[in-house]
């Protein structure tokens, strides 16, 4: 009996391998930038978002977050630690809860921030799967909304990105001193997204501009022309910008400086 595979069987095997390879790539999130993942998750949300994923404040101007009159920082305890109480929606699976808590624990090992389950604290983070990746900047009122949608947002880098917003940080490309480090190519930005690239009156904490910050948009964010850059590093345009792995060393430094850890 001839046990050699027939031509049709070989073609079926090749087709199956091709489909499996394609599905594997599709399921692997690392090929999508953090900016793309966040913006895709937020597409269609009914929330009013600033800069792509910042929930517009209803009680005061978040741009004044760092002034002496308006403080949006979490309070430091007498033991020198900054406790941020949180609650997690019951919809998250045990694996999703573990992923969120692992991203939080990274702060514990590098900064004086401590994310703790809420008991009776008045000010707290309410982490929900609300159809996108977004939240408020710092403390604006008592209950701080932080949305981490189950499909697309529960990833280490995105969680830390949104937690940094909750601690009071804006996107790196919106820094007040950015002209020395990046060029915004306005002609390649969708009209509806122009506001996401405006400079903010930020407190840069005497830190270096951080191309590798988990808070930095990638170079093609909101591009209206496929392949064209909306953000170009200067003076060296080849510098890598934007990543999805998690907090950079300078991200950690900024937290420590802002909260005087």
Automatic annotation (TrEMBL):
Signal peptide span: 1-22
Residues given in the record as Zn(2+) binding sites: 161, 165, 171
UniProt entry keywords in alphabetical sequence? Disulfide bond, Hydrolase, Metal-binding, Metalloprotease, Protease, Signal, Zinc, Zymogen
What biological processes does GO assign it?
A: proteolysis
Q: Name one GO molecular function term.
A: zinc ion binding
The annotation note on the cofactor reads:
Binds 1 zinc ion per subunit.
Per the UniProt record, which EC number(s) apply here?
3.4.24.-
Q: Where is the active site?
A: 162
| Boundaries of every Peptidase M12A domain copy | 61-261
Q: Which cofactor does it need?
A: Zn(2+)
Under the heading InterPro entries, the entry gives: MetalloPept_cat_dom_sf (IPR024079), Peptidase_M12A (IPR001506), Peptidase_Metallo (IPR006026)
Q: By its UniProt entry, which PANTHER family does this protein fall under?
A: DISCOIDIN, CUB, EGF, LAMININ , AND ZINC METALLOPROTEASE DOMAIN CONTAINING, HATCHING ENZYME 1.2-RELATED
Question: What name does the UniProt record give this protein?
Answer: Metalloendopeptidase
Give the species this sequence originates from: Salmo trutta
């Amino acid at each position: 009996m001839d046990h050699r595979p027939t031509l049709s069987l070989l073609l079926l095997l090749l087709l199956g391998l091709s489909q499996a390879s394609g599905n594997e790539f599709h399921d692997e999130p690392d090929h999508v930038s953090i900016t793309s993942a966040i913006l895709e998750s937020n597409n269609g949300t009914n929330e009013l978002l600033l800069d792509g994923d910042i929930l517009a404040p209803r009680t005061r101007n978040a741009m004044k977050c760092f002034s002496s009159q308006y403080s949006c920082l979490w309070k430091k305890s007498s033991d020198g630690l900054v406790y941020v109480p949180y609650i997690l929606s019951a919809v998250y699976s045990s694996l999703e809860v573990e992923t969120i808590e692992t991203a939080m624990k990274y702060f514990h090992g590098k900064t004086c921030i401590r994310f703790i389950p809420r008991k009776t604290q008045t000010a707290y983070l309410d982490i929900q799967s609300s159809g996108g990746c977004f939240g408020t900047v710092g403390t604006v009122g008592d209950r701080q909304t932080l949305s981490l949608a189950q499909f697309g947002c529960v990833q280490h880098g995105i969680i830390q990105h949104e937690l940094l917003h909750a601690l009071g940080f804006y996107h790196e490309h919106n820094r007040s001193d950015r002209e020395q480090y990046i060029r915004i190519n306005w002609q390649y930005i969708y009209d509806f997204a122009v506001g996401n690239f405006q400079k903010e009156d930020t407190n840069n904490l005497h830190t270096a501009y951080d191309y590798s910050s988990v808070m930095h948009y990638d170079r093609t964010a909101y591009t209206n022309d496929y392949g064209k850059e909306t953000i170009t590093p200067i003076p060296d345009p080849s510098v890598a910008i934007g990543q999805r792995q998690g907090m950079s060393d300078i991200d950690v430094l900024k937290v420590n400086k802002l909260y005087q850890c």
